[in-house]
């Protein structure tokens, strides 16, 4: 194995916890059972590395095989890096009929036409998602396997999730995607996060949603904690209404784990008109950037609303996160829902 | 809406101390807390008292909903729980005060502040709290809400005040007790002083 | 929630009802910091003498510290982010004995670091070099002169001829301390209540314990309170017409589970306009026209400024920032964090900022 292969393998070993590495090797079909069992994961990473190098050299495996391993590893541990969502638009009639083999072939051939040196690997994940690994090169340099772009696409949906893509590469990827799927355009979905599963679930609405209804939902009963006949909540109705509205806006149960939401506000100053007449009458927007951050943003928001820190009904700006599946917003005077004024 | 209607409405929403008859050997306490965090623990501890029947009503703010008017017993003591780390907590209590009949301020209201020792509490807020309690002639208690001991000692104090306020202690009245326990502020709270 | 626990922990460690220090006269045991007594169990403490933050501040624009303070010292002061502590008055501290203090502290640090280690004696003697120096020009009329402390050291495996590197620095200052209070101190005490440090924490605690042992003082962590942070937000914004503040950034934390952090970054010009609109009796233009140095800012103006920012926020998100607490304020002039970290990036506004912090330190002292 050459130096570069060594570096690539070393990086993979170093970045992955021992248990995850073991699982990755278990999923890789190339290893024999004996080979798999011969690796002792309790020893230091350096020693594990040497054992793996020996196995690779014994079999004459190269960079190609290491990238294969890296891909399996990434698919199993998708929650790293920053994932950005894109949405394809203007479907043609055959958009829903694109098959995996057809897509694979077309995507590879289109991309290699667009970029001189590029290495593409496509694999189907257990959840039917297509994983694409792209190592980019250009006319003068071979594909850089140290900085691959990962693309995840669910066939028959307009959504594409991308990580580690720079602006130079973006047009090529967009072009190749459009040519090999049945869509004619692609746009930034303004949604990003560290957890691929979270942004996917949010966009595809794969979480427990509560819809507004006239009747009391099961949530109401959940909220009533009558511990003792002598204790009475005077405003239990308000509380359950708040909880209902909180869940309508941000989902019930386990919600997609988003970390941030960003709002760029370019609206008129909306302070108290009585105390601050000068500002409310002022021409031009009051420009500010508001960033919300939490380990689980939707859960934090839900608690804000159910506990009354956030007034209900929930601000349309906040409920747009789930409603529109976005976490980046530019809010201008025209774009502001009328209920805000 | 006519002016007359409005006054009726305001009148109805006021909580009055003597509009209902007291129940035998029972006392009712209303815990008002914006955050609704400490009140449940406190309520559980309060109803554990064996000498009298304690009824606890929990609210986030005043006024109380009209619908419960019928079923609600006479409230003998109103406690405002204020988390000093939150400005909103104090503001909300202030806003609720105007829904109490003035009769309550003769010994049937008390303030319970939590987190007073937390370093993130600005002195100004503590001052505002003390001034509020002093101006209304109400006692101001400090409580520790995170430990069982803190909850117990707060419970004991509230029970003492509650029993007097409900007229269950033959030798004392609410007004008498409050004249002893009400919060006072030092005369120099507003100006720096170096003796 | 976790944060709160920690803060409470630190509050509990702070003596509440005054440390019994016999040497001190009664006259100032009744002064600063007895506001901490307000945290006593009952709402009434008859002897409570409250000392509060000033409700007005003078913003003098002519702080040409650049001309007064040594350039190297100033460069160091504005380069680092400092972790703040409060220090009670130092007993028998002499500004004339700084050389001897330098020697003593070097020996102290070396000895403490050496404990339990068998090291070459010759080497060890040189391994920590401490220098105390005066910072001229950084004191108000009644204040004691600011003292700068620097610790230099070599790597354990550095070559003989390699120069020692600055590994820790700290300073003790008093900027426009309350003159009544300073005047009430007995002669043997020097008041330098604000202590800033930058460097490894073990060195900070060594330096602090040396001070405690030698000058019979108490040292404890100093948070930058909610009110101080609001003051800084206003004071810095107030400078925007002279020096572009680039942005006004406020970080709030809301007490929900999991905790919600909100970063609110306002365009400098819009922040300035809002500030102008809340200044009493003057629109934004009027303030700009007035060129007289030394303006008075009132706490009410600071509060209306924050109120304005919060209500603009509320109208959009229907989320009440006042239910949480302000954790951090930053502009290009500096940044301040609730946990007691401060960076003053522009020397022009150092005096104003340090005056505010000195006041905070004096309030925090458990005398």
Helix content of chain A: 40-55%
Question: Which bin fits the share of residues in helices of chain B?
Answer: 25-40%
Helix segment tally of chain B: 6
Q: What class, by secondary structure content of chain B?
A: alpha/beta
SSE pattern of chain B: HEHEEHEHEHH
Q: Overall 3D geometry of chain A?
A: globular
Molecular structure report:
The complex is a heterotrimer of chains A (341), B (195) and C (367). With 341 residues, chain A is of the alpha+beta class. Chain A has 3 domains: 3-76; 83-202, S-adenosylmethionine decarboxylase (4-Layer Sandwich), CATH 3.60.90; 217-340, no CATH class. Chain A contains 13 helices and 10 strands. Chain A has helices at residues 3-15, 18-27, 33-38, 45-59, 63-76, 100-114, 170-180, 196-203, 218-223, 236-250, 277-281, 297-307, 316-324; strands spanning 83-91, 118-124, 129-136, 149-154, 159-163, 183-193, 231-233, 260-267, 286-293, 328-332. Helix content of chain B is 36%, strand content 16%. In chain B, helix 2 (38-46) packs across helix 5. Chain C is globular, with a radius of gyration of 22 Å. Chain C has helices at residues 2-13, 26-29, 65-68, 71-79, 98-114, 121-127, 179-184, 201-215, 226-237, 268-278, 284-289, 299-317, 350-364; strands at residues 56-59, 81-87, 90-91, 128-135, 146-153, 165-173, 189-190, 194-198, 219-221, 248-254, 260-266, 295-298, 325-331, 334-337, 341-344. Chain C folds into 2 domains: 24-223 and 360-364, no CATH class; 226-338, no CATH class. The chains are: A alpha+beta (341), B alpha/beta (195), C alpha+beta (367). Chains in contact: A-B, A-C, B-C. Chain B binds chain C through residues 85-89, 91, 111, 113, 115-124, 126-127, 130, 133-134, 139-142, 146, 183-186, 188-190, 192-195, and chain C through 4-5, 7-8, 10-12, 27-28, 30-31, 35, 38-46, 48-53, 178, 180-181, 184, 223, 225-227, 255, 320, 322-325, 338, 363.
Topology:
The complex is a heterotrimer of chains A (341), B (195) and C (367).
Chain A: H1 3-15, H2 18-27, H3 33-38, H4 45-59, H5 63-76, E1 83-91, H6 100-114, E2 118-124, E3 129-136, E4 149-154, E5 159-163, H7 170-180, E6 183-193, H8 196-203, H9 218-223, E7 231-233, H10 236-250, E8 260-267, H11 277-281, E9 286-293, H12 297-307, H13 316-324, E10 328-332
Parallel strand pairs in A: 8-10
Antiparallel strand pairs in A: 1-5, 1-6, 2-3, 3-4, 4-5, 8-9
Helix pairs in contact in A: 1-4, 1-5, 2-5, 6-7, 10-12
Chain B: H1 3-13, E1 26-33, H2 38-46, E2 53-59, E3 77-83, H3 87-97, E4 109-114, H4 123-135, E5 140-143, H5 148-165, H6 174-181
Helix pairs in contact in B: 2-5
Chain C: H1 2-13, H2 26-29, E1 56-59, H3 65-68, H4 71-79, E2 81-87, E3 90-91, H5 98-114, H6 121-127, E4 128-135, E5 146-153, E6 165-173, H7 179-184, E7 189-190, E8 194-198, H8 201-215, E9 219-221, H9 226-237, E10 248-254, E11 260-266, H10 268-278, H11 284-289, E12 295-298, H12 299-317, E13 325-331, E14 334-337, E15 341-344, H13 350-364
Pfam families (chain A): CENP-N
Subcellular location (chain A): Chromosome, Centromere; Nucleus
Family (chain A): Belongs to the CENP-N/CHL4 family.
